[in-house]
């Protein structure tokens, strides 16, 4: 029944039928009439087989095709063979889809599959718990009709998914979610939502602890410094007392500087958004930075400042000044007397670039990725001698984050370093002028 199609057998049968009709016509002396009747009978037989095939395909529930004969035997058997292949492929796809769903259900995040029109194709159980979806009732529903948060709707329609979005869960506002959208296939989207409530709570507790401790330390340090200054005045004639008091005063100033930097870092971290409508006069800012650098260097370094005209930017002047000051102070601190330091504010392809290049001791490659961590020091002994607290670059990182920028570091040991960042073009106040 399931023999493969044979063109030779089909031709042989057709030729035998035609010869039989022709011989019968010759015997009856009615060749044309007999051939016509034979053609009509052949056509009727083919129509009957076609009707059986149609009935089997559309009405008959049996998997096996009807028994065919002649040229239709290969058609019936071929269709049945294709059906078997399709069933095997469908079973494989069903098994693969089942394994995919099991894997997606095992993920610790909410997962929603969207089509090109943002309709829900599938979601896991965590998506139902975190996002308030109901499956399968919400199948083929637009996601922006179910999650009505304005920030999420803007994020979804904007189509720029490089950065995640944080928003309150539609189920309860006490839960904070981090939502990521990933494009794949033919304009399809994969939404992944993660519960970051505990992480944000711990970060808030850490910030509050650092801010409170720093604030509480500021008053006793001020009192201690005042009494040390008084004792230094009283012990000027006694070298045995003046040296310890001088060391105590030095460490007190160092600790006070660290407390002030902790407070600055806490204020920057607590600032969720800055007013990007304010304009920062970069030439005036560079003048202030130059005066600070000259006072800190005390004439021991060759300082070169350059500011291109027309590069005023929108942002927080206090945060930008803090970031630039820390970069310049680090360059002076880690450059030997007589070395050169170049500070430049100029136009580049992506916006306005601020850079500090020094001829100092440089940094080994393994340390560069960790420079912006709190209290991380490449050389702890040298940092203590130079008064470094390990907080300056952490302040720079958070300040630049509010201005859509990030710190770039290029350095080689004993060959100097370049610390730079680029304020993007959309934050510039006006079209720059080349001078």
How many individual β-strands?
12
Distance between the termini: 90 Å
Radius of gyration, whole Å: 40 Å
**% residues in beta strands:** 15-25%
Write the H/E string, N to C: HHHEEHHHEEEHHEHEEHEEHHHEE
SS content category: alpha+beta
- Low-pLDDT windows of residues: none
In helices, the fraction of residues equals 40-55%
Mean pLDDT: 83
Major β-sheet, in short? 5 strands, antiparallel
Query: How many H/I helices?
Result: 13
**Overall spatial form:** elongated
Could you walk me through the main structural features you see in this protein, from its secondary elements to its overall organization?
The chain is an alpha+beta fold. The chain contains 13 helices and twelve strands. It is elongated and about 150 Å long. The mean pLDDT is 83.
Short note summarizing the structure:
53% of the residues lie in helices and 16% in strands. With 435 residues, the chain is α+β, with helices and mostly antiparallel strands.
Outline the secondary-structure elements.
Layout: H1 7-28, H2 31-58, H3 72-106, E1 110-114, E2 120-123, H4 125-131, H5 143-146, H6 150-158, E3 165-168, E4 176-184, E5 188-195, H7 197-234, H8 239-270, E6 279-280, H9 282-297, E7 302-307, E8 313-314, H10 317-333, E9 340-348, E10 351-358, H11 365-368, H12 380-386, H13 392-401, E11 408-411, E12 417-424
Parallel strand pairs: 7-9
Antiparallel strand pairs: 1-2, 1-5, 3-4, 4-5, 6-8, 9-10, 10-12, 11-12
Helix pairs in contact: 1-2, 7-8, 8-13, 9-10, 10-13
